[in-house]
Automatic annotation (TrEMBL):
Family per record: Belongs to the MurJ/MviN family.
Localisation: Cell membrane
One GO MF term attached to the UniProt entry: lipid-linked peptidoglycan transporter activity
Protein name, as recorded: Lipid II flippase MurJ
Function recorded in the entry: Involved in peptidoglycan biosynthesis. Transports lipid-linked peptidoglycan precursors from the inner to the outer leaflet of the cytoplasmic membrane.
Keyword Transmembrane on entry: yes
Protein topology in the membrane: Multi-pass membrane protein
Length: 140
């Protein structure tokens, strides 16, 4: 909406084209060695590139200026993500191989992994002082 509300359609389209080209280049680079995981990686990295380029243009054109406290907010989110990732990597060493057991047993293990990730993430946010209202949308 930052660009479209200013009748600037060209900037997001140019960024989308760059993102599309980079996605295809990353597909070529990652799919060979990483197979289907390479496809997911290239799409995820391209999404980050797209968001970063849009953010850069919003800042460059003085359309967007972050409110005070955003750096702290993002740092706390990043810490929670790192803690969650560490908990999930730790689950790799606790859980048996995916191929072991029946499908209901596999699904129970998968649910356990999801629960551990959710608990680690939100517990870290709680320890860091997050409040639910920080996630609600505020209008000016």
């Amino acid at each position: 909406p930052g660009f479209y509300s200013r009748q600037d359609i060209k900037t997001p389209v140019k960024i989308a084209i760059v993102t599309l080209i980079m996605t295809q280049l990353m597909n070529l680079a990652f799919i060979g060695p990483l197979k289907h995981a390479g496809l997911s990686l290239s799409i995820g990295l391209a999404a980050c590139l797209n968001a970063g380029l849009l953010y850069w243009q919003l800042r460059k054109q003085d359309i967007f200026t972050p409110q005070p406290g955003w750096a702290s907010f993002l740092l706390r989110l990043a810490i929670a993500v790192v803690v969650m990732a560490a908990a999930l990597v730790g689950m790799l060493y606790v859980m048996p191989e995916w191929a072991q057991g029946t499908m209901p047993y596999r699904l129970m293990r998968l649910m356990a992994v999801v629960v551990v990730g959710v608990v680690a993430y939100f517990a870290t946010l709680a320890v860091l002082g997050f409040k639910v209202k920080e996630f609600t949308r505020r209008t000016v």
